[in-house]
Amino acid sequence: MQNIQRSFYSGSGFSDWEIGDVTIILHDGVYHLFHLIIPNHDYIAHAVSNDCISWKRVKNALFVGDPGEWDDDMLWTMHVCKVGERFEMYYTGLQRKLRGTNSMIGLAVSYDLYNWEKKNQGIFPIESKGPYYESMDDSPRKWLSFRDPYRIEYENTAYYLICARSSRGPVSRRGCIGLLKQEGEQVEYLKPLHMPMVYDDLECPCVFELNGRYYAIASIREDVKVRYWFSDAFLGEYHAFHANVLLPQGNYAARVVESINGKTLIYSFFYTSGLINSHRVFLPPKQLDTDERGRLLLKSFDHWEDVAYDILDQNHFNTIRCLFDNPTASHSIEDNRWVVGSRSGYELFVVEKPADDFIWEGVLSVEGMGKLGLVTDMDEDGSGYYYSFDVVNGHIEVRAWGFNEADIRSNFNFKVLQDNSFTINPRYTYHFKLIRFGNYIELAIDGLVKLTLIDYNYNNNFIGLYSASSVVSLNNSFIKKLPPLEDEYISNA
């Protein structure tokens, strides 16, 4: 049972990858999502949600300008926030007569989030200028990055963060978080808030305060990941920890919003192939926290627990099966504990899943070294998702692995969908939390989300463990059912 299309919001119409960069604002208990429409970039769409998971389209927010106006070509990334009694949308516009080479920042306003009016006078539209940033007269690429605005107030002053380009440095490494300050009807161009001096662009930048520190995040085209930097003060300087990937590969255009419960949520869309020119789906958010050193921690959205039901403990799982009938494999079942292993070759120890959508939690203890991990969505031939735990090197990856009937010379599909690192436990004992919801996969290890993605390859009947030259135990495991996905716009990829 492959290629089951039950997915999240993708803004789909004629094409199923229409969703572009996103922004969310929470107002009166409702999440409002605004996003680009790809590839035309001719309007900004609007959708609403009560849970930040299921979305319904409403009146479109903004359209390209009439011929001859500065934004008559395309609309790019925006940011929506409340300023006083009104809502303001800062958006990126391009002009036809310049063939889109000069992106500028415009303003639209609303009093209800549904009806918007452009207000491009005074300081707007804002364009890139020297001496700190490239200008139309001083751009080696002959086109400017000055887009993806983000407004933030600091000490009663409005600042704008921009995906900009420094006027100095190697051409492919000038990407920076540009910084502007507004005072009345004047805008001051400041030095970049942060310039790593290594990336072409820092897309969709934003800054937020969490637990006494400031964090800057940006999406990086070079490896299609979301990275972060930290500072003790809003105006910097910003630094990186030894590992600064916040969302693993394929997650993009990330920004933050405060949840109904006051938690800091990070949201993004996902490139299903891991490449920037592929199908995009808007993912459920994750929650942010920090550790004792100030490193950002990625945790599961607490809404999952609010809607989960029918807890089934490990003693009441369906009957365990050895899928491959490996003669060197063995397993024993105790009270809320399985011990499985295979001396030579692979074996899959599986049970029928109790629901299509579920949360599976438990503790894996490695009692003999070798290959091991979780499996979901298995069929009788072992086609499905393999979650490989490298407990020696602290590496996790999810693979879509199975039979390929389309090619008799390569009768297999094998693709690493996403990978990440995790902290090694000297006891080799790990708590996991695996969410399968529609085509969404999320895996947390010891409370931290390590894999978050969409994939359409498999939706089969079995879940369980695999072992190859290893012994592993599953302890105190349980499964919670999740209600079916409700979405006005289901993906048809």
Could you outline the blueprint of secondary structure elements for this entry?
Blueprint: E1 19-27, E2 30-37, E3 43-49, E4 56-57, E5 62-63, E6 74-83, E7 86-94, E8 104-110, E9 117-118, E10 147-154, E11 157-165, E12 175-183, E13 186-194, E14 203-210, E15 213-220, E16 225-231, E17 245-247, E18 251-258, E19 264-271, E20 280-282, E21 286-290, E22 296-300, H1 303-307, E23 309-313, E24 321-322, E25 329-334, E26 337-352, E27 358-368, E28 371-378, E29 384-390, E30 395-403, E31 412-421, E32 429-437, E33 440-445, E34 448-454, E35 462-481
Antiparallel strand pairs: 1-2, 2-3, 3-4, 3-5, 6-7, 7-8, 8-9, 10-11, 11-12, 12-13, 14-15, 15-16, 16-17, 18-19, 19-20, 19-21, 21-22, 23-35, 24-26, 25-26, 26-35, 27-32, 27-35, 28-29, 28-35, 29-30, 30-31, 32-33, 33-34
Descriptors:
single chain; 493 residues; mainly beta; 13-stranded antiparallel β-sheet; five-stranded antiparallel β-sheet; 35 strands; elongated
